[in-house]
Design a protein that fits this description.
With 462 residues, this protein is an alpha+beta fold. The protein has 3 domains: 318 residues, Vaccinia Virus protein VP39 (Rossmann fold, 3-Layer(aba) Sandwich), CATH 3.40.50.150; 57 residues, Sun protein, domain 3 (Alpha-Beta Plaits), CATH 3.30.70.1170; 72 residues, Archaeosine Trna-guanine Transglycosylase, Chain: A, domain 4 (Roll), CATH 2.30.130. 25% of the residues lie in helices and 24% in strands. The strands form 4 sheets. Strands 5, 6, 7, 8, 9, 10, 11, 12, 13 and 16 form a 10-stranded mixed β-sheet that branches. It has a 5-stranded mixed β-sheet with strand order 19-21-22-23-20. It has a 4-stranded antiparallel β-sheet with strand order 2-3-1-4, with no helix packed on it. Helix 8 packs parallel to helix 10 and helix 10 packs parallel to helix 11. The radius of gyration is 24 Å and the shape is globular. The model has no long low-confidence stretch (mean pLDDT 96). It binds S-adenosylmethionine. S-adenosylmethionine binds next to helix 10. GO terms for molecular function: RNA binding; RNA methyltransferase activity; S-adenosylmethionine-dependent methyltransferase activity. Keywords: Cytoplasm, Methyltransferase, RNA-binding, S-adenosyl-L-methionine, Transferase. Pfam families: Methyltr_RsmB-F, Methyltr_RsmF_N, Methyltranf_PUA, RsmF_methylt_CI.
Length: 462
């Protein structure tokens, strides 16, 4: 049965789409498309297809996205808990796929929760540079943090702030800013009819106002020559070409850039904004033209001549010799070593922190960098988050279970496991528990009994 759409929404869509309106409405009868995006820091497409048996078909406008069949149920596969992929609606993959982020850059995802784009941007950084991932909602920021940590992103500063507070501290700091804006969500109507109930005629105007404030602060945080990508999952002109026209008028230092093409992308419509021709450079994704629900994208650049802001950066840290010796003892067994100049100790807790402005007091954050573990009386206890950045061959002690092994479910529920002699690469001490070669977390092995160190906050229930 076709969903019932609000009358005023239908009327506006008819005006917008003209002859194409029928095709748009018929797209509601098409089956839903399921997408997953692999984590290139942990796995390749071939490894995923071989290890999981999923039938994967590349999503042509992305590099790391694949359509999968509903019956594959990737959320139930152990690879999901190892952070090997993120489940994402195919058109929602476009903003991160079309935003050229390079390792070493400073990147801000201003409306990031629950992390659909932030996990992709973080993976593109490959642990180099910094990803500031922010959301105004505390509960959503918590989900964002977990998704980034499961993905093994080690250089994220996860904040829970209003954009203006961030802009006051990060003025001119970022190479790239992504604004995946809160919006009226008209592109979600087909996938999630519950969104229709939250919609009314005033929603687009309400969100357009919010988007302007977010955009203005996003621009403030860009360095000269930096790029900003704005996206929504709605069709309403006022939230798309409208918001972009507004920011271009407000900030003449911003210029709209073309977005690398895909033949089924549609252009933005100048008449839906202030009439300027460049609005054609925006991208619209329509569900009747592509295998995706709907999205809008605009890529902008701040002029190289815009005034520069100098921000004092936090100085490198100097570790206490005794603590460093204790940690070095643990990392003797690990292929990966931290950059000691970025290791910070707070009480017992040890963090690997990215390079950030020196003055961030007052900013509410959930995590700064990688929580590596705890220093306890002359020993170092590695964290869950550290495990998620490693694979079996990175650490001297590991056990690789096959995806069918029933002990995986028990491990993820926090139970103690029994290992056969020779199953783990060593008989005693810290063991990286893996599905195939991909880590889930830690265990501590004594006499064949593996004490469970999977993080209590992430344990499966039941
Ligand atoms: C479209 S969702 C983001 C989806 C996310 N980028 C992803 O791919 O998973 C928009 C987000 O903006 C957040 N938000 C709403 N108002 C905001 C504001 N003023 N500043 C920052 N974030 C805001 C919402 O809490 C919501 O999580």
């Amino acid at each position: 049965m076709r969903v019932e759409l609000p009358e005023s929404f239908e009327k506006r869509m008819k005006e917008m789409l003209g002859d194409e309106y029928e095709a748009y409405i018929e797209s509601y009868d098409n089956p839903r498309q399921y997408g997953l995006r692999i984590n290139p820091m942990k796995i390749t497409e071939e490894e995923l297809a071989e290890g999981s048996g999923f039938s994967l078909e590349p999503i042509p406008w992305t590099k790391t996205g694949y359509f999968y069949k509903e019956e594959n149920q990737p959320a139930r596969h152990p690879y999901y808990s190892a952070g090997l992929y993120y489940l994402q609606e195919p058109s929602a993959m476009t903003p991160a796929a079309k935003f050229p982020v390079k390792p070493g850059e400073r990147v801000l995802d201003l409306c990031a929760a629950p992390g659909g784009k932030a996990t992709a941007l973080g993976a593109a950084l490959q642990g180099k540079g910094v990803l500031v991932a922010n959301d105004i909602s505390n509960s959503r920021a918590k989900a964002l943090l977990k998704n980034l940590e499961v993905f093994g992103i080690s250089n994220a500063f996860v904040t829970n702030e209003v954009p203006q507070n961030l802009a006051d501290r990060f003025e001119g700091f970022f190479d790239k800013v992504l604004i995946d804006a809160p919006c009226s969500g008209e592109g979600m109507f087909r996938k999630d009819p519950a969104v229709i109930k939250t919609w009314d005629e005033e929603r687009p105007e309400y969100f357009a106002k919010l988007q302007k404030d977010i955009l203005k602060n996003g621009v403030r945080m860009l360095r000269p020559g930096g790029k900003l990508l704005y996206s929504t999952c709605t069709f309403a002109p006022v939230e798309n070409e409208g918001s972009i026209s507004w920011i271009l008028n407000e900030c003449p230092e911003m210029e709209l850039l073309p977005i690398e093409g895909y033949e089924e992308f549609s252009e933005g419509n100048p008449a839906w904004g202030d009439g300027r021709e460049e609005l054609r450079r925006c991208v619209r994704i329509w569900p009747h033209k592509m295998k995706g629900e709907g999205h809008f994208l605009a890529l902008m650049k701040k002029s190289e001549d815009a005034p520069e802001t100098r921000i004092k950066l936090e100085a490198p840290t100097r570790m206490d010799k005794k603590n460093k010796t204790v940690m070095e003892e643990f990392f003797k067994d690990c292929q990966w070593k931290p950059d000691w100049e970025r290791v910070q100790i707070k009480g017992e807790k040890v963090y690997l922190v990215p390079e950030l402005p020196a003055k961030l007091n007052g900013i509410h954050f959930l995590r700064n960098g990688l929580y590596m573990g705890d220093l306890k009386k002359n020993r170092f206890e590695p964290s869950q988050q550290l495990a998620m950045t490693l694979k079996a061959s990175d650490y001297a002690g590991s056990v690789s279970l096959s995806p069918e092994d029933e002990r995986i479910g028990r491990y993820l529920r926090g139970e103690t496991l029994l290992l056969e002699p020779g199953e783990a690469t060593r008989e005693k001490g810290w063991i990286l528990v893996c599905v195939d070669q991909y880590a889930f977390g830690w265990g501590k092995l004594v006499n064949g009994v593996l004490k469970n160190k999977y993080w209590s906050g992430w344990r499966l229930k039941g």
